Amino acid sequence: MLRGTCLCGSVSVEVTGPIEHQPEACHCRMCRKQSGHVLAAVNVRRDALSVGGEQHIRWYRSSDKIERGFCSECGSTLFWKPTIEDYQLTAVAMGLFDGPTGLHLSKHTFVGDKGDYYEITDGLPQSDSY
């Protein structure tokens, strides 16, 4: 089970089911703007995700298809999710989790949008899309 909080502790998350996917690092322009660098997140089934402090979550619709959640108190990046009604996954920012996760980045996406101030040298797969 994974647990964590935002920076101020107003929002808490708990993953109660198995993690079916390994986290990914997204380098797209919007994820970079939201997170301040790269968004590392793991997709979690919505029915396996418990969230506390929902009154502190604000959602920003960054496109016709995507919403991004953040803490209204401290500004921490929390979530990324498609607005598709039946979509069953929410991407949870890896930085929220406390303690060891046992997870490992699996790939880098949208690397064509990455900042020019860093290189990706970890040998993981890279793509220009999702």
Keywords:
single chain; 130 residues; mainly beta; Metal Binding Protein, Guanine Nucleotide Exchange Factor, Chain A; 3-stranded antiparallel beta sheet; 1 helix; globular; CENP-V/GFA; metal-binding; zinc
Give a quick precis of the structure.
By secondary structure, the protein is mainly β. It has 1 helix and 10 strands, in the order E-E-E-H-E-E-E-E-E-E-E.
Descriptive report:
Strand 1 and strand 2 form a beta hairpin. The protein is mostly beta strands and 130 residues long. It starts with a strand and ends in a 21-residue tail after the last strand. The mean pLDDT is 95. The chain is 5% helix and 36% strand. Strands 6-7-8-9-4-3-10 form a 7-stranded mixed sheet. Strands 1-2-5 form a 3-stranded antiparallel sheet, with no helix packed on it. The protein has one domain: Beta Complex (Metal Binding Protein, Guanine Nucleotide Exchange Factor, Chain A).
Sequence-ordered SSE layout with sheet pairings:
Blueprint (H helix, E strand, L loop, with lengths): L1 E4 L6 E4 L8 E3 L2 H7 L3 E7 L3 E4 L4 E5 L4 E6 L5 E6 L6 E5 L13 E3 L21
Parallel strand pairs: 3-10
Antiparallel strand pairs: 1-2, 2-5, 3-4, 4-9, 6-7, 7-8, 8-9
Pfam families: GFA
Family: Belongs to the Gfa family.
Keywords: Lyase, Metal-binding, Zinc
Number of strands: 10
What count of structural domains? 1
Q: Look at the structure and give the mean pLDDT.
A: 95
SSE ordering = EEEHEEEEEEE
Helical stretch count? 1
Kindly provide the name of the CATH class.
Answer: Mainly Beta
CATH overall fold name: Metal Binding Protein, Guanine Nucleotide Exchange Factor, Chain A
Strand % is: 35-45%
User: Which percent range fits the helix content?
Assistant: under 10%
Strand order in space, largest sheet: 6-7-8-9-4-3-10
- Name the structural class: mainly beta
Keywords: Lyase, Metal-binding, Zinc
Family: Belongs to the Gfa family.
Domain CENP-V/GFA: 2-119
Organism: Sinorhizobium garamanticum
